[in-house]
Here is the input.
Amino acid sequence: MKLKFHCIILLTTLSVAFLHSMSVAFSLPDESDFHSYWYNHGAEITRFELEQSRYGEIHSGHAILIFVTEPFLPDIHVKSDYESSRKRSIPVLKLNSIKRFNTGIYDYSMMKSIFTPTLTEKPQYIKTLKVSTTRQDWCGHVYLQYNLEGDQYKVKQYSYFEKEGDKSMTIPSVHLEDDIWTRIRIAPETLPLGKIKMIPGSFFTILHTIEAGAEDAIAELTHTREGDSGISQYTVTYSSLQRTLSIHFNQNFPYDILSWSETYPSGSGKNAKILTTNARRTHAVMTDYWNKHSLEDLNLRKELGLAK
Here is the structure.
């Protein structure tokens, strides 16, 4: 099984590298520093073609990553909406990550929001402050939220399923897999490396009814060249879960994410097999989407390869 697992990872890495050479539709600004890129153009919205492992099969769908900076209130963990509270806020990079795919007759819709402080003059705000994650399918709802309190994450979970139920707990504030995505965009040199404790991604835990908690992991960062571009690959391997996550991103600013793959056992009982979820970038735009909400703005969805 171990040999088969490693072979699949190798084949996945090669196939993803090949996909990088395929053309994509872009409309991203050409800026050289964090402030100019993230504060002058709106939100970065990227669509990915998704091949999602579920029930021992691969299902087609799409994923969307929406990155945007916001003023965030670190005491109550919400966006600052008023001038009166703005002076108490800190800047964060927010990621809204969305997955949509079908399994047979019914569909899945998943979303998580991650709030990570940007590099500021306030060193006490380094760790991701909040992650909220939802899963909806035709069976029911699951909601999971992490809030940083001191050196712990306060966890709240609400679920339709008996195995999970409604619960609250605290877990140590070790590395979060969920904030790999925002940390790449802010400062990839801050990614943890080597043997670490990491809390697996919330999409994975709520899809597989795994209780939130720290796992032993090995994290690696490698660099390659493809034509004139440098590509970085960040990989996290959890031996206890037989799971490996690899994220490919541009080596230079703005460190945009190109693709990712996730390999783990899929299905149950005798039908379980090692499969790989793949996501490949197809479209990317930067726009103030919150001002594009009229009927005449529907055509903008075509720029993202989304159905009307």
User: Anything to note?
Assistant: The two ends are 44 Å apart (CA to CA).
